[in-house]
Write a structure and sequence with these properties.
- The chain is α/β, with parallel strands linked by helices.
- It has one domain: Metallo-dependent phosphatases (Purple Acid Phosphatase, chain A, domain 2).
- It is built from four helices and nine strands; from the N terminus they run βαβαβαββββββα.
- β3, α3 and β4 form a beta-alpha-beta unit.
Length: 172
């Protein structure tokens, strides 16, 4: 089993095409591309932690959630309604969650934190909400689709990207 992270799919939400902006000509095209990118990476036995803002409405969520591979967990965001949170397709639903993956403690929330539990002991904060527009703190990662190539991402990929970024910074 592999563990993936994602956020801010905003399935069915026409407003999101202009937030960053996204490279899709329509909501239908965006929805299908996001499903395709998800299912290309995620197998049925994998886990996906979706850190909020899954879909703009219950109908689109009901249509798309069953089409997505993996055992899906929701850490709800500001647009995720109570009815969306109660859909049968979620393995679990949280407002905040702490998780160990590959020996690393992860603090999961839709919103980015300034501080988080065990941050000075190596814990990482994974979040969404900012659509790749917020400069991260050390050990903090935006897993939203806008920041991650419109696909779920692995913890190792986040850490590799951070290491490459650190190598490119000039030393004093």
């Amino acid at each position: 089993m592999t563990v993936f992270f994602t956020s801010d799919t905003h399935f069915g939400d026409h407003r999101v095409l202009n937030i960053r902006p996204r490279p899709f000509s329509s909501i239908g095209e965006m929805n299908e591309a996001l499903v395709r990118h998800w299912n290309t990476r995620v197998r049925s036995q994998d886990e996906v932690w979706h850190l909020g803002d899954f879909a703009s409405g219950l109908t689109v969520a009901q249509q798309l959630l069953p089409r997505l591979n993996g055992r899906k967990h929701l850490v709800s965001g500001n647009i995720d309604s109570r009815a969306l949170r109660e859909l049968d397709g979620w393995a679990s639903v949280h407002d905040y969650h702490e998780l160990m993956v590959d020996g690393t403690m992860l603090v999961l929330c839709h919103y980015p934190f300034r501080t988080w539990n065990r941050m000075h002991r190596g814990a990482l904060n994974l979040h969404g909400h900012s659509h790749g527009r917020l400069a991260p703190l050390k050990r903090q990662f935006d897993v939203g689709v806008d920041a991650q190539g419109f696909r779920p991402v692995l913890l190792g990929e986040l850490l590799d990207k951070a290491a490459v970024g650190a190598e490119k910074r000039p030393s004093c």
